[in-house]
Each structure stands twice: as structure tokens, then as C-alpha cells.
Fold:
Amino acid sequence: MTQRETISFALGTPGNKAGGICLELSPEQVSVCEYDPESNKVLYLAESQMPGGTYSIEQALDQNRIRLKAYGQTLVNYSSAMFTVVPVAFYTEEHSRALLEFNCGKTGSDLILSDDITPDIKLIYSIPEELKSGLDKLLPNHHLKHKATVLSRLALQADEFLTEQMLVDISSSSIYIVVKKAGNLLLCNHYKVHSDEDILYYILFMLEQFDLNPLSVKVSLSGQCETESSLAKSLQKYIRQVRFVVGNKSLNRSEITNLPHQFYFSILNRTFCE
Structure:
């Protein structure tokens, strides 16, 4: 296949100078964003489909028309269901695999890594060793975080979420749900979904679990969900205050003006939760 045949989405133009790059890797696709870290201007945003997650990093970059440069900032979001959130008081590096497998099942030969969501909360996750090796080889100075960490940190830190209780990030086959209350993280989880009904079920179930009133709770939506979609209209029937995320105000979107702000939220705003 040619690059033009494999790429599924692209806006802007790849940068000629060393700047910043952010990758988001999932079993279904690879998204890539080149940007200018000084002006926070998005230069290029693209996505290619990678069924089964069998890609190499080099292949993923090539299919998104990226030619590697000496980037000043290199960020990577890794999306998978194999993660768990634990209090720092329960965490030790030597027991991290056991903690993850207790909640998620066997991890095989995958590497076990961890992120800090807050000083008191760790996120433990697994990543295929060959994928991490590819990142280390091609992007040796990269900063890797799980997508759940990125979404949780944005929900806890970003100004637009100061009064929000729930962030739901939506993709074609899964969702992340982050729930917080009084500035504290209550939940961050990932769910496989097959329909709008599945998404609605999980959101309403979380409201019930955490005793959040649909009439007063504030729910933010990010990801691949249109403002006039059937899902958005269904949610608004049950929850009074549903809105779509905006993202950091300092982000220069002049090259992606036609892209809804909620789309590619975690990759476009990753630099603001470092």
C-alpha cells in the first residue's frame, strides 16, 4: 500500500524544523501531531489505521507522512485496557505486575510501567516489549504516558474542568471514563463498547455508583463524537449538563480550524499536562 492509501485522516503540513511531536498509539490506530512548542501551534495532525496493533513505530510514522527530526519535545500516549489505578501507599515496583494482573489478568512478557497521576495515585500498565523497544530506538528521548493518565491529569488540572465531575473520551470501539469529586480522582477506567446504548449504560452506571445526580452533574465529552450525533442527543435526555470539551485556550488551531475541539483531545492537549 502507498502512504496515501493507508492514511485515513490528515490536516495541516508536516513541519520542516525540529519542534514537537506527540504520538497516540492504540490497537486500532496511530495518531500523530507535529507542533511548535513555543507557540503551541498545531502544524500537522494525522491518523492511520493499524488493525491488531501489529505495527512498528517506523511504519506508523511513515504511513502518517512523518520524517523523523531532532524534536525538542517528544510525547507518546499509549492506549490500552491493561491498566489499573492504585494509591501510592500500596505501590511498590517489585509488586507492580502482581497488582496489575490481579485487576486485569495475565500480562505475559509485556513490560510493566507506571505513571504518576497525582502525588498520591499511581497508574500501572503493561506495554509490549517490542513496541517499547521501537519507541526507544526511534524516539530515544520520548516521554511515555498511558492515555488514562493523560485524561486523568487533564480532568484534575485543566481550568475547563474545575467544576466538572465526569470526563468521557469516546473512540470507535471503547471509552474512557474519569470521575472526580472535590478535586479528587474517584475512578479512571476503560470500557469496550459496541453501540451508543453501551456508552449510555456505562455513564449512567457510573452516576449511580458515585451517587451523582443527573440533574446537577456536569459531564464533558471528548473524542470522536459529533455535537449533533444520536449519542449526544441521547445523553442530553438523561443528563442536564452535557458539554463538549474545548481544550487549552493557548493552543493555536489555525491549521485545524475545521476540526471539532473535542476530536483528538488527548493528543492535542498532552503537552499541557506535563
Notes: Residues 113 and 238 are 38 Å apart (CA to CA). The chain has eight helices and 14 strands. Helices lie at 3-6, 57-63, 96-104, 129-138, 147-157, 196-209, 230-238, 265-268.
